[in-house]
Each structure stands twice: as structure tokens, then as C-alpha cells.
């Protein structure tokens, strides 16, 4: 039997075009039906919706401005590729209330619940951030690849309530992979960062949870946290930063750095420049150059416990003779490829160093400079290694 289709239904469908009304009244927008991505984004109603961007390369000369809350921007994986052609320092994607561009937004007027997922965005050395979000509450960035920008891969500016970044890739950005400023209850998990200037900045914020990320080959530092309270950086792999793996500065307090593998850093492992009431525990520092952990003059009330500081020694062979370490031949970047460093205390106060193992270090396990007071060093192990 052939079913008849109502002419009115056909007419209505054509009139709606690329906007599919959902049961809740929001919209699903197909970007392919519009001349530009901005036109497609502008079609999202104020109540929110989903902008679906199909596979393809989309060149942007001005930022793609997302102006609505309760909105999801969804690509088709890395086959959806947004390319920022702007060379005036502008971002590829700007998420900001349309009435508050460049201004400070009252809390009552901020956009809520914007989600970006499953696409790739790239820029150039003169472009701005890949994605810049300003005063967006409960933002979620997931499964996004952001690379080659003149600015940050992702910049969150006073996205105060519950920002979340997960399963993303941030690579080859001239500034940070992720830059966080003025945020609260932050999740950064299961992302990969490679060869940005710095991996992540968290500035003037509260309650960062950073776990399960992989950071490699940064030209500066891995993780920089400033003026931030009550946070945890745990179970991350941080390798081969030209600077420090982790830096705490400007009145940080109540932060735990634990169970990270900090490997082959060229300047040092953890630098406590201005940190208080912090715990450094159960981390592995392997062939970390110059300094494993530094506690500076402005820091205090620090515990450093159950960490392992080691070089590349891998044990004895079947005959009980020591195995060779890593190739000892010097290079331009490493006069001593096996160099492993311990702890530096610099004019600091109230530090406990307990239960750590220092194995095959090039210098002292714990070195003090200046007037260090109220320091307890107790129950640590020291292993001097014999090599072929």
C-alpha cells in the first residue's frame, strides 16, 4: 500500500530547512546547509541547540562566535577541521555573550553549559587562541584537537563554575596548551599535551583537579599554577620539559602533587616558588636535571615524602654484575645523560623530608642554601650505584 504524504508536511519541512526542532523545542543545526559556519551558529535559538559540523575543511578569517548557552558544537572527529586564517591575534572560536564582548560580565548574565566536541582546530603563528571562552559557566571541551596556534590551544577566561576539559589533544601552540584564569572546581583529565610553550597554566583559580594527562617535550614548563588554592595534580606523565615539570607560585596553598612520573626534565622537577601547606608525595623523579624538588624562600609548611629520585640504572645482570646505565655519551643538551638530582632547600622554613629514596644522584640528596629553619629530614634512603 502506498502512503500519501500531506502536502502541508512537505511544505513545512522545506521551510524549516536545516533546523530540526527537537521535542524540547531546541534546535539541531546542520552547518552544511549554510553559506558560512557563522550563519549556522547564528541560527541557534536563544534557548540553545546543537550545531553539527560535517567532515570538511572550514577556513575562518574572523572568530566563529558562539553566542548562546545550552549549546553543543559537534564535529565528526578530526575530519571536521577548522583552520584559523586570521593573522591579527584573534581566536578561531570565541564563546562569549553577544552583549558583553570584551567586557566583564555580571554573574547573572553569563552563558551556561556550552559543550565543544569532536573536531580539529588549527591556526598559525600570528593567530590567537584556538578556542577562547569568556565568562562561560559549566563549559565542557571534550575530544577536541587544537594545534599550531599563535596563542593558547584553549583559553578559559573566568569560566568560573565547573569547567571541564577531557580527552583532548593540545600540540605545537606558541603559548599554552591550556590557559585557565579565574576558574573554580576545574577538571583537566585524560588529555595529551605536546611541544607547546608551556603545557598548562592555572592562574588566580580554585580547586584544580588535574589527573591522567600526558605532557611531553614542552619548550618551557609543563604545569604552572599561581595564586590557586586547594588543588591536586596527580597521576600525570610529565616528560622532557626544557623548564620545570611543575611550578607553584604567587601564594599557592593547600595543593597536593602526587603519583606523577616526572621524567627527564632539563631544568628541574617541581619548583615551589611561593607555596604553602603543600604535599609532594609518591612521585617518581627519573633523570631530572639540576633539581628534583626546589623549596624556595617564599615557601613553607611543606611535606616531601615517599618519592623516588633516580637515574637510569636497571639492576644487575644474571651474573650479579651491574648493568650499564643509559648511554653516557654527552650531547649538546646533556653533558651528563644520567644526571639525577635531589632536593634543594633555599632560605625556607617548616619542611619535612621523610621516606624518600635517592638513588644514583649526581649530587647531594638534600642540599640547603641560605638560612633554612624548622627542617626535619628523617627516614630517607640513599643508594650509591656501581656501574660498569
Description:
This protein is mainly β and 388 residues long. The protein has two domains: 26-219, Pectate Lyase C-like, CATH 2.160.20; 238-388, no CATH class. It has two helices and 40 strands. It has a 26-stranded mixed β-sheet that branches. Strands 5-8-11-14-17-20-23-26-29-32-35-38 form a twelve-stranded parallel β-sheet. The longest helix has 10 residues, at 7-16. The protein is elongated, with a radius of gyration of 25 Å. The chain starts with 6 loop residues before the first helix and ends in a 5-residue tail after the last strand. The model is unreliable at 1-25 (pLDDT under 50). InterPro entries: Beta_helix (IPR039448), PbH1 (IPR006626), Pectin_lyas_fold (IPR012334), Pectin_lyase_fold/virulence (IPR011050), SCF-Subunits/Alg-Epimerases (IPR051550). Residues 315-338 are annotated as: Disordered. Residues 165-309 form the Right handed beta helix domain.
In short:
GO terms for molecular function: lyase activity. It contains two helices and 40 strands. It is mainly beta and 388 residues long.
CATH architecture of the largest domain: 3 Solenoid
CATH level 1 class label of the largest domain: Mainly Beta
Number of helices: 2
- Coarse morphology: elongated
- Secondary-structure-based class equals mainly beta
Q: Between the first and last Cα atoms, what is the distance in angstroms?
A: 88 Å
Give me the CATH fold name of the largest domain: Pectate Lyase C-like
The gyration radius over C-alpha positions equals 25 Å
Strands, total number: 40
InterPro entries: Beta_helix, PbH1, Pectin_lyas_fold, Pectin_lyase_fold/virulence, SCF-Subunits/Alg-Epimerases
Keywords: Lyase, Repeat
Biased composition (Basic and acidic residues): 318-329
Pfam family, one: Beta_helix
Amino acid at each position: 500500500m502506498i502512503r500519501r504524504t500531506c502536502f502541508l508536511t512537505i511544505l513545512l519541512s522545506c521551510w524549516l530547512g536545516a533546523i530540526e526542532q527537537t521535542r524540547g523545542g531546541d534546535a539541531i543545526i546542520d552547518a552544511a546547509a549554510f553559506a558560512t559556519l557563522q550563519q549556522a551558529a547564528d541560527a541557534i535559538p536563544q534557548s540553545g541547540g546543537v550545531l553539527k559540523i560535517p567532515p570538511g575543511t572550514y577556513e575562518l578569517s574572523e572568530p566563529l562566535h558562539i553566542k548562546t548557552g545550552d549549546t553543543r558544537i559537534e564535529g565528526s572527529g578530526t575530519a571536521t577541521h577548522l583552520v584559523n586564517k586570521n593573522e591579527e591575534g584573534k581566536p578561531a572560536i570565541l564563546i562569549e555573550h553577544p552583549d558583553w564582548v570584551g567586557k566583564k560580565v555580571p554573574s547573572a548574565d553569563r552563558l551556561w553549559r556550552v559543550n565543544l566536541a569532536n573536531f580539529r582546530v588549527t591556526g598559525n603563528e600570528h593567530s590567537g587562541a584556538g578556542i577562547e571562552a569568556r565568562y562561560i559557566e559549566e563549559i565542557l571541551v571534550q575530544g577536541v584537537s587544537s594545534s599550531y596556534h599563535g596563542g593558547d590551544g584553549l583559553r578559559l577566561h573566568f569560566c568560573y563554575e565547573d569547567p571541564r576539559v577531557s580527552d583532548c589533544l593540545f600540540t605545537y601552540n606558541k603559548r599554552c596548551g591550556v590557559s585557565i584564569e579565574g576558574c573554580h572546581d576545574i577538571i583537566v583529565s585524560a588529555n595529551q599535551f605536546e611541544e607547546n610553550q608551556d603545557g598548562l597554566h592555572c592562574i588566580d583559580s580554585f580547586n584544580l583537579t588535574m589527573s591522567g594527562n600526558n605532557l611531553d617535550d614542552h619548550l618551557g614548563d609543563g604545569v604552572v599554577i599561581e595564586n590557586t588554592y586547594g588543588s591536586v595534580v596527580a597521576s600525570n606523565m610529565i616528560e622532557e620539559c626544557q623548564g620545570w615539570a611543575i611550578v607553584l607560585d604567587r601564594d599557592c596553598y593547600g595543593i597536593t602533587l602526587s603519583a606523577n612520573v616526572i621524567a627527564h626534565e632539563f631544568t628541574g622537577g617541581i619548583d615551589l616558588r611561593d607555596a604553602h601547606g603543600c604535599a609532594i608525595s609518591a612521585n617518581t623523579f627519573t633523570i631530572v636535571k639540576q633539581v628534583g624538588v626546589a623549596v624556595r624562600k617564599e615557601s613553607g609548611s611543606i611535606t616531601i615524602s615517599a618519592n623516588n629520585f633516580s637515574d637510569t640504572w636497571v639492576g644487575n645482570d644474571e651474573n650479579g654484575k651491574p648493568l650499564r646505565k643509559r648511554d653516557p655519551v654527552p650531547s649538546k643538551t646533556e653533558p651528563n645523560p644520567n644526571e639525577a638530582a635531589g632536593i634543594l632547600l633555599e632560605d625556607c622554613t617548616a619542611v619535612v623530608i621523610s621516606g624518600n629514596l635517592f638513588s644514583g644522584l649526581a649530587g647531594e640528596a638534600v642540599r640547603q642554601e641560605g638560612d633554612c629553619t624548622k627542617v626535619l629530614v628523617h627516614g630517607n634512603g640513599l643508594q650509591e650505584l656501581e656501574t660498569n
